[in-house]
Amino acid sequence: MTFPAAPRRYLMCRPTHFAVTYRINPWMDPAAPYDSALAISQWENLRQTFLGLGHTVDLIDPLPGLPDMVFAANGATVVDGRVLGVQFRDAERADEAPAYAAWFRERGFDVHAPKHTNEGEGDILLAGDVLLAGTGFRTAHASHAETQEVLQRPVITLQLVDPAYYHLDTALCVLDDVTIAYLPQAFSPGSQSVLRQLFPNAIIATPEDAAVLGLNAVSDGRTVVLPEQAVQLTEALRSAGYQTIGVDLSELRKAGGGPKCCTLEVRP
Description:
This protein is of the alpha/beta class.
């Protein structure tokens, strides 16, 4: 089932200072080469893709010394104009949190500072009327109650078990209000059972597509923007009635990110 696409508002951050100089997830290898110019070019193609679909893209200024700031999805969670700020697990990303909070405050949003570690839409995804909240690697379970209180939506806790899929948005994509795509092996048995009950018509991703961050995708309910390397997932989405646009973010994947990591949805 697909829904008519409504224009979305996204916040993105140009990877001006992109680099892989530390290791805070299994995708990162500081000894491997990376190409900052290519990362910028791939990111710009993603931005233009969103604009071509009729969406609004706001930009936050990148700050020197914060190479992962490009992953805007981790900067906040925004629902009904309420903003839950973030608190990063790793010291390398800590200074991103106040920068994103300031961006929202300066534009009149109701920003709530978190009391517990949470990494924004990396681990908190709106699916219809509920929030799916991951835990196990980055976001603390204690933050889920805080998320429900601030954002005023029911929260469903999902336990992540595979370090390669350290954020929920690397293992699960919300396609529309009633449909998701996900990799079952990334979740605990109990969480797999919950997902089967909540989303009986979910699209099941292959390990091969998950391994190229195919599930780190952005859907407006009709068109899904996902890594072009996720061939089988693309076919499954089209068979289910979705339009797809493949993009190449292979350079940013060296830091563990894909289209969704680069995209924070701003919900008024």
